[in-house]
């Protein structure tokens, strides 16, 4: 009985110590990745320090891509889709924006990756979605301070692009200078549901409606605008962690930078892009230049091959041929046969 009692006390003590250790670790991590400059003289821009900083040549386009330090697979897929040699021939420089992984064992792999490809820009802050604003600003700061280019493109690494059609838009001067062009989100309200990933407290954002902002999936601007955004960020000691809202909404509004709508060029579902690829045999162009990959990394490569082919071999679609009108993407069907009866599940 006495032995059992001692064993129970030992287990409870061990669990209590473990709980305190986890709590201490979490609190420590929070202070590491959530910068709060209320009690310092630092502004947001000044706390962005580079760990890895690639060189930047004179280019037509600087392409910055938000990426997780731990997700080398996505960067590999993008490098296969648009190899650095191809981008160089198109006068484009692409860099991936990273934070610091929590696992120190990952650091050496990132260093090797950087030495091999010279396309990583890493900041001195932990990888966390609450640090997306720091990561985004880091890309703008590096580009505006180190590069000479006509345009800057920002994307997320899970967004598929038709870089050839984007080049045509820019070369034909269909994008206004000194604007931010992309998918405009209007009259969006902060999410106040606490268990939502994008929950914003009244302290985070006291207003009831966000200023108009661009989806961070993909937008086009130039280095002058990037520099304006960085200069304006220096007046802030706190940042709103939802980067799309803070940078293309709050900061942009402070700078009085206009938004240019490109909503019709965006596929909202990856299956639209797959429909475009299937129509290759009809030699029809895709009306979309950007869209999500649906978790299918191979879609980046397939869509690049399709769009490269269609540069010279495809025709513009008539209204009745638009993918948005002819491609059914409301659901995918999974058919299961049970006791000779077919059941269809919508996913």
Automatic annotation (TrEMBL):
The keyword Glycoprotein applies. Its EC number is 2.4.1.-. One of its GO terms (biological process) is protein O-linked glycosylation. InterPro entries: Glyco_trans_31 (IPR002659). It is an enzyme of class 2 (transferase). One of its GO terms (cellular component) is Golgi membrane. Keywords: Glycoprotein, Glycosyltransferase, Golgi apparatus, Membrane, Signal-anchor, Transferase, Transmembrane, Transmembrane helix. It is found in: Golgi apparatus membrane. PANTHER family: BETA-1,3-N-ACETYLGLUCOSAMINYLTRANSFERASE, HEXOSYLTRANSFERASE. This is Hexosyltransferase.
């Amino acid at each position: 009985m006495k032995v059992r009692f001692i064993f129970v006390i030992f287990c409870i003590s061990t669990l209590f110590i473990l709980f305190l250790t986890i709590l201490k670790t979490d609190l420590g991590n929070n202070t590491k990745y959530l910068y709060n400059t209320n009690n310092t003289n630092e502004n947001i821009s000044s706390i962005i320090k580079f760990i890895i900083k690639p060189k930047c040549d004179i280019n037509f386009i600087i392409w910055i891509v938000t990426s997780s330090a731990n997700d080398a697979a996505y960067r590999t897929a993008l490098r296969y889709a648009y190899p650095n040699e191809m981008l160089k021939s198109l006068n484009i420089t692409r860099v991936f924006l990273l934070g610091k992984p929590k696992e120190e064992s990952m650091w050496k792999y990132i260093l090797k990756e950087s030495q091999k490809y010279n396309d990583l820009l890493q900041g001195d802050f932990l990888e966390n979605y609450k640090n997306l604003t720091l990561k985004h600003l880091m890309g703008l700061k590096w580009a505006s301070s180190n590069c000479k280019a006509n345009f800057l493109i920002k994307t997320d690494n899970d967004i598929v692009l038709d870089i050839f059609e984007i080049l045509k838009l820019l070369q034909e001067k269909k994008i206004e200078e000194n604007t931010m062009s992309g998918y405009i989100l209007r009259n969006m309200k902060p999410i106040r549901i606490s268990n939502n990933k994008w929950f914003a407290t009244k302290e985070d954002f006291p207003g009831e409606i966000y200023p108009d902002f661009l989806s961070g999936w993909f937008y086009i601007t130039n280095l002058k605008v990037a520099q304006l955004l960085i200069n304006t960020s220096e007046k802030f000691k706190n940042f709103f962690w939802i980067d799309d809202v803070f940078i293309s909404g709050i900061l942009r509004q402070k700078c009085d930078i206009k938004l240019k709508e490109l909503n019709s060029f965006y596929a909202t579902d990856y299956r639209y892009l797959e429909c475009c690829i299937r129509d290759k045999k009809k030699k029809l162009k895709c009306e979309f230049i950007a869209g999500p990959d649906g978790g299918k990394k191979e879609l980046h490569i397939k869509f690049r091959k399709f769009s490269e082919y269609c540069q010279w071999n495809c025709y513009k679609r008539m209204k009745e041929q638009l993918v948005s009108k002819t491609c059914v993407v409301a659901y995918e069907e999974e058919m299961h046969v049970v006791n000779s009866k077919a059941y269809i599940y919508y996913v």
